[in-house]
Protein 1
Amino acid sequence: MTTPRDRRYAGYRFPAEVIAMAVWLYFRFPLSLRKVEEMLAARGITVSHEAVRQWTLKFGRGIADQLRWRAPRRGDKWHLDEVVLTIAGKRHYLWRAVDRDGFVLDVLVQSRRDAKAAKRLLRKLLKKQGWAPRVMVTDKLKSYAAAKRDVMPGVEHRQHKVINNRAENSHQPTRRRERRMKRFKSARQVQRFLSIHDPINNLFHLRRDHRTASDYRTARAQAFAVWVEVAGAPLAA
């Protein structure tokens, strides 16, 4: 392993490659902090799960922000959906928007499921994306229609349970992480975790369908190259 040259890793006992590997493992796969610790131990790297937690918080945000900034313009068909999360015994709603290819556009954790909450999501999407979609696809929750009339009146709105499977399926990785974490502890934790998790997983959302094995491997190599450039270090061998 080499001495880290990136200033972000200055002063850390472990090389940048190890830290980058820990952050990538934790956000890319449904692993607990202790599982990441064990996988690093299998490579001869002795580090505590608490150190891994600190790395994910400190470096994950910066990596995710750069990936979000680098991301290409997504599709003009947005799928929106919300799912219930029980946090500390209270019901919350995770609002999510994905494009037609399944890339996550944004998420927002809220305590309500009304038109005001839907408006907050739409305004956040417009601010982050910088443009309105051609089509918005949702289920039949009336809050979406009310919010769209005020925030995006010129956008075509399609409401149907079946055609919104793209957004509904996008909740599955969050459900897996929820089980791995033995439930989320706070709405702030969910928002913080997903704001890092989603850009990283967007980078490796390569879609094997309609791709040859060679094309897929090329796309994967390109994704790893972007990761190395953004993280400032290659993944540890």
Protein 2
Amino acid sequence: MAEKQFKNPTPTVDCIIELSGERIVLIRRKNPPLGWALPGGFVDEGEPLHAAAVREAREETGLTVELVEQFFTYSDPKRDPRKHTVSTVYIGRAQGEPQGSDDAAEARTFPLNALPPDLCFDHGTILSDYLAYKRTGQRRKI
């Protein structure tokens, strides 16, 4: 009898990097899907989620991020058009100006009231939830 094959979602992380002056860091993706996104990516085997968030942020923005809290986990099977991913989102803080590298064509800061419209994945939803959390202290309901 053949062993059952499982298709499991892939773990990812995203990081909302806060800078002084009510700004956050976004990257413009070099690879499809194209557009602006939170710094983040796939978790390596044997890597804790929080370490992956710090690593991905540094690789894509050049910033050393101090994680402040785990924000929420997003798991809609349609959140990534490439395959089913589950992303744990962190809120972190950093200082300095980001520099796009790795798979980020560009990294820039944006005021919270002037985010770009062409956000990838479900990052528009994530940032909407984040803005509501900043305003009310309430997290997204499950």
Protein 3
Amino acid sequence: MECRQDKNLKQCNCTYSPCPRKGICYECITYHLKMRELPGCFFPDDAEKTWDRSFEHFSRLVQAGRV
């Protein structure tokens, strides 16, 4: 299956510009899960900018009705 990196980049809200996984969703998700976190695209833009991608942060956002 071909990666659609160009298409994925149009929807990627990750603010970490030097990331080599930007737009390569499988690699991004795999990396973040190994780090016990979620990719930036799981978070609203303002929450993603904090770079706190922990499961706990995501859970707090869900509880607050923001996700």
